[in-house]
Amino acid sequence: MTDRHSVTKIHQPDPHVRRILERAELEGIELIRFLYADHGGVIRGKAASRSRLAERLGTGIGHTVAMMAMNMLDQLQEVEQLGPVGEVRLVPDPSTFVPLPYAPGAAAMLSDLRLPDGSPWAACPRTFLKDAVAALDDLDYTLVAAFEPEFTLGRRLPDPSGGPDRLVPLDDSLCYAGLGFDTAHDYTIKLVRALETQGLHVEHYHPELGPGQQELSVRHAPALRAADNHVLYRETVRGVALRMAMWASLAPKPLADQAGNGAHLHLSLWQDSRNLFAGDSDVRGWFIGGLLAHLPALTALTCGSVNSFRRLAPRMWSSAYAVYGPDNREAAVRICSALGESGEPNLELKPSDSSANPYLSLGAVIHAGLDGIRRKLDPGDPVTVDPDTDPGRFPRLPSSLGEALDALEADEVLMAALGPLRARAYLAVKRSEAAAFQGHDAAFETFHHLRTF
Fold it and tell me: Is 189 helix (H, G, I), strand (E, B) or coil?
């Protein structure tokens, strides 16, 4: 959709604007992508030309409301208020401007979906996370977070038998093996440099368990920045691979019979420069209690695809039980030990992957944790064994997207936080995905997820 008529200008004086315009001119940036994540977890957007950038920083770019009713298969769902009539604006956040090292001549900004008059739109995922952060602010809390993603690196090749394309991993090296470092070295160095150039500071990297599987983590940040970082991370992982004639997939299970790709979510809660998750604090316990109480519903947002539930199985180190424990990597919530004298303890939510919309995922986690704090929910005793050694004793996570969506629809706290339009749209989009993959084989499922995420 092009903008041929005047629109209400969304006037927000910003110190970043002049710098952006100067950088675009000096660095030869021709197209600036305004990116957002939709209800299907897909990163989408439109791009403004440099010649129109000054205007678009104020007005945004016009966008049909219907796109928030599109699923990951590009099938438009019938959702009230998200049809052919209606317009929102893709309005970029100037503070997120980054040139894209893997796409010379292009830059990107993370964007909000706003109404034409500039006011927040009830189906904007980034606004959902902003509202959750505001709820933290009301209690003088600050949440610091980081996603810890895994992905599979290889090449996308035609199936010899005529089926969907398949991902052929770059190597078959062993977990953490030196050979894995060497095989992926050229790609990894380009990826690290591209991330650092965009302000995503790399923490650590290693070849993971599955063939071609990589894990590279970036430093934690305040909640909104952490979600923005994950969008840029996903785009960069795939963009660098494409420029090297490779294919990278962050899908939960791009190879049905191999290790899955998580995006574990690390969290710490702060007040007056104090980490409230340090020690055996009541606040940490209540926050965990909130996560566990809402975990079946949360899973619909943190593991938001059909493919996610191939990964969430017992004894896969991905969590299949709604339990917590200290450094227990089979628990849904792990209490992570501090690293070194200057390290800070944090919580790790393991049922989390990159098919989720990071704004909805992290926002929902915040609302669940706050509910635990407000109600002082007791998380019960920590679990210090693999819960699958006594499976009848511990509650299982949902085993399918449909089951998780049922739990979400029944969760009054999370449904109220989402709001009527966003909840209605999300459920419609995700139920359509569950129905679309039903009856198809694993090759069909893995293809559509590896090409999308």
Answer: helix
Q: Taking Cα atoms as reference points, which of 386, 355, 370 lies closest to residue 149?
A: 355
pLDDT at 344: 81
CA distances from 96 to 12, 44, 127, 224, 280 (A): 15, 16, 15, 11, 36
Rounded to 5°, the CA angle 286-135-272 comes to: 70
The pLDDT > 70 percentage for the chain reads 96
Distances in whole angstroms, Cα of residue 205 to Cα of each of 208, 250, 267, 269, 444: 9, 15, 20, 25, 31
Mode of pairing for the β-strands spanning 263-271 and 346-349 = antiparallel
Torsion angle of C-alpha atoms 251, 254, 260, 261, degrees rounded to 10 = -30
DSSP 343-407: ---EEEE-S--TTS-HHHHHHHHHHHHHHHHHHT----SPP-S-GGGSGGGSPBPPSSHHHHHHH
Please tell me the distance from the alpha carbon of residue 125 to that of residue 249, in angstroms, as a whole number.
23
- Whether 354 and 263 have beta carbons less than 8 Å apart is answered as yes
Residues 6+ apart with CB under 8 A from 269: 141, 142, 143, 144, 275, 276, 277, 283, 284, 287, 369
**What element of type H or E holds 288?**
helix 282-302
Instruction: Count Cβ atoms within 10 A of the Cβ of residue 58 and give its class: 0-12 exposed, 13-18 middle, 19 or more buried.
Output: middle
Distance between CA atoms of residues 236 and 254, nearest Å: 18
Pull the structure tokens for residue 259.
Answer: 């290790």
Query: Cα separation of 147 and 352, whole Å?
Result: 9
Q: In whole angstroms, what is the distance from residue 97 CA to residue 365 CA?
A: 27
Which structural domains are found in the chain, ordered by start? 15-119 (3.10.20.70), 131-452 (3.30.590.10)
Strand bridging mode 213-218 / 331-336: unpaired
Q: What is the pLDDT of residues 202-244, one digit of tens each?
A: 999 999 999 999 999 999 999 999 999 999 999 999 999 999 9
What b/e readout covers 227-237, taking b as 16+ CB neighbours within 10 angstroms? bbbbbbbbbbb
Q: Residue 273, Cβ neighbours under 10 Å: how many?
A: 6
- Torsional sign, CA 166, 171, 174, 178: negative
What is the distance between the alpha carbons of residues 360 and 343, in angstroms, rounded to a whole number? 28
Strand partners, 325: 334
Give residue-wise pLDDT tens across range 139-172: 999 999 999 999 999 999 999 988 999 999 999 9
